[in-house]
Amino acid sequence: MSAIRDLVCSTAVAKGHIGKSLSAIALAMATTIGAVSLSHAMTAEEVKARGYVIVATEDDYRPFEFMENGKSTGYDNELKDLVEKETGLELRQQIMPWAGILSGVTSGKFDMALSAVMVTAERKQSFDYTTPTAESATYYGVKKGSSIKTAEDLVGKVVGAETGSAFLAELKAFDAKLKASKGEGVKKIMEYHGYPEAYQDLAQGRIDAVVNTDLTLRALVKERGDVFELGHPIGEPGYKAWAVKKGNDGVLEVINDALLKIRESGEMYRLQEKWLGVSFEKMPLDVN
């Protein structure tokens, strides 16, 4: 056996491949280990033992989450603080644009989207949700003094929404309804990587309306009522919640238990009043 080992080693050295072979083996092992760790859904006990949950939060989505004086704040961030206090876990947060959040959860980069994720039937195929954090309805907003007075007035207009958002999907569905009932839909749907850019275009008159949740549009109008007006709903009411990859039951259990206790204590409703201007005490406990 020793002779065979020596022969193999001497041959590899002679050909100058031993370093490359070991590197290839190490890379294969690392890849395998990484794949196993990503595919393994932890139990609640394993999550608690690890001591942290990796979460992604949107960078600019008032009043739910946004940056102020270099710090991420808003409704979801204050709710995050309560969950950390309740669980004793660290919610390791990455702040980023919306476009990368859900894909990061499905790939295993993040354990959870700690963001105002709209619950939809399509998303339920890929995600499981915590107890809802807010009620929501899809509205349009316009520039102050706009001729758009009803949802039907969006016919022939340029309307914006965020790429990858549930509100973009709602807008497309509403556009289809307009075409079926009026024979004509919106003139053009503009997609944006973030809502601040859409609001800027609306203020400058480059688009006619923006579609978003009523809560965010109300906050916008409250802050900049000299520029914007709230329109009317174009979709059915729904809920917002934090989301994990479907089957990630351990993370969901730990975070959801904490949120339910925060709801029961009334602290969630206090934060809703503070940040959203209304509380939603009649929300269902489960939206999955």
From TrEMBL:
InterPro entries the record matches: Solute-binding_3/MltF_N
Keywords, sorted A to Z: Signal
Sequence ranges assigned to domain Solute-binding protein family 3/N-terminal in this UniProt record: 52-279
Highest taxon of the lineage: Bacteria
Gene3D superfamilies for the chain: Periplasmic binding protein-like II (3.40.190.10)
PANTHER family: AMINO-ACID-BINDING PROTEIN YXEM-RELATED, MEMBRANE-BOUND LYTIC MUREIN TRANSGLYCOSYLASE F
Family: Belongs to the bacterial solute-binding protein 3 family.
The protein, known as: ABC transporter substrate-binding protein
